[in-house]
Amino acid sequence: SFGMVPEVSYERRKRLESGASYPVELITYGHPKSMLSEAYRNIRTSILLSFSERPPKRIVVTSPNPEEGKTTTVINTAIALSQTGARVIVVDSDMRKPKIHKVFDEENGIGLSNFLSGHTALESIIKKTEIPNLYYIPSGPIPPNPSELIGSKPFKYMVESLGERFDHIVFDSPPVLGFADSLILSTFVDGVILVVLGGKTPKETLQRAKEVLQQVNAKILGAVINRVDIQRSDYGYYYYRYHHYYGREREKKELPFASPSSTSSPSLGKGEG
Asked: What is the reported pLDDT for 229?
């Protein structure tokens, strides 16, 4: 596997989503000493070491099926990459069920679909976040023809243009089984990361996803196993050691993942001036 991300308990996830702390999608920024953040830094390391000559610049993150955690993986991996000092942009190319704008507490007004259909300039859809070195492009209104837009000349132009301005471009893409979007997108990029649910995504499903990507000669970097139950896996020993190392500091806090500076979920997105 390319990396493993531990499961967040139901109770802790509800705390994270209650407004009392950063959402789990921003955990690597809000709570860098958490076990989740360490997992995403490990994924970052795997990405940076995946090519012998240079780190991959253009990366697609997808999953075999919906609801396997790809958007959370996209944003936290992008944050981890930005923490190296690299300029990183997240592109919400899931124009079927977009989520990136929600994470940054923004409206999904003008975005990728507007640019690809010729209604706005690329510069107008690039958003700067309050996270250093991190930018994003929202999906824009859901179009009737996402696959055609991704396969268009404007999309190719965008990829080339962003490549001149950013060190890494991370694409959030629709599930690979059932939609052509990710297959088309994979031909524009350096590599693809598959996100699967630990203990839940059938091996046959993962194998099928790999096969359809290989049919278009996609470079598969690896699979991220998401929501791993560390109490039932061999990986648990590593997390036990990590928890023990940081235990004293974390035990001082009533909420291990609570923001030290805010009691409300921050707004981290704003238009680039």
From this structure: 78
d(CA 83, CA 66): 28
Q: Which amino acid is at 221?
A: L
Phi-psi map region of 213: left, alpha, beta (phi>0 left; psi -120 to 50 alpha): alpha
- What count of other Cβ atoms lies within 10 Å of the Cβ of residue 136? 29
Q: Which residues of the chain are modeled with pLDDT < 50?
A: 10, 20, 233, 235-267, 272-273
pLDDT for the residue 15: 56
Q: How many residues does the chain have?
A: 273
CA distance linking residue 168 with residue 171, whole number of Å: 10
Residue type, 233: S
CA–CA distance, 38 with 63 (Å, rounded to integer): 22
> Would the pTM count as exceeding 0.85?
no
Best CA proximity match to 98, nearest among 143, 57, 133, 43? 143
pLDDT of residue 8: 67
Report helix angle 35-48 to 70-82, nearest 10: 70
- CA 104 – CA 14 distance, rounded (Å): 18
C-alpha torsion 139→145→68→241, nearest 10: -40
From 264, 255, 239, select the one nearest 37 (Cα to Cα): 239
Strand order in 269-271's β-sheet?
A: 3-6, 220-228, 191-197, 58-62, 168-172, 88-92, 134-137, 127-129, 269-271
For residue 18, give every residue at least 6 positions away whose Cβ sits within 8 Å of its Cβ, in sequence order, or none.
none
**pLDDT attached to residue 236:** 45
Q: Give the model's pLDDT for residue 257.
A: 32
**Locate tokens 């030290």: which residue?**
260
Domains and CATH numbers, the chain: 3-9+18-248 (3.40.50.300)
**Rounded (to 5) percent helix, strand, coil in the chain:** 40, 15, 45
Looking at residue 205, the DSSP 8-state letter turns out to be H
